[in-house]
Structure prediction request, 243 residues.
Amino acid sequence: MTLPPTTPRAAMILSAGRGTRMGALTDDCPKPMLMVAGKRLIDHAFMRVAEGGALKVVINLHYLGDRIKTHLAGLTSPEIVYSEEAELLETGGGLVRARPLLGEAPFYAVNSDAIWTGEAPLPTLARAWDPARMDVLMLMAPIRDALAYTRRGDFFLDDDMRPRRRGDADFAPYVYTGAQIMAPAALDGFAEKPFSANEIWDRALAAGRLFGAVHHGGWIDVGTPEGLVTAAAALHREAEPRP
Prediction:
């Protein structure tokens, strides 16, 4: 698979959260260490960033982070660096804290609980990334392809792939799938404190520098025990020999 020269070579896997929607499953296990189709969620995420061409991976840690470190201790490629959070900084604050570790070039940011089927998700982003026009490029899926997803969608996409939030509409046809490319400048001016990445996106949206790319395949919302079951079934179906 040939990737363009603008492909990010650094990635962040967001892994610090408590995973409260998983209930008792995360009482003594960090959510990225839960199993799906014979692999830990963090392993699925790690495979995806390597597939996207990343040579360095920053993983943020908070809840039971030592278990993630121990699990990944034997891996040497891509390089792994940890961003430890004494307090949970949420998605936005976690990105700000990790910024010095990610370098000065655009990077991938991937949720550790995202599972995709079909085409490789990060190469899709890399091929659509245009640093001259974009500060953030989000990978989206049509809501019809979002499994175990129970909400009303996140965005509309205009013809030029500029997103609009659902706002007061009853429904939006696209869902953010937990993968994006971000320019470091998108974090300028944000403090290292707990806040949502939605604030970063809203500023990029107002500046006309937030874009979307569409994933052609399935995406599973692995936020609940039901999502784990759905993701495992989807991956098993994809691995079955085709007639």
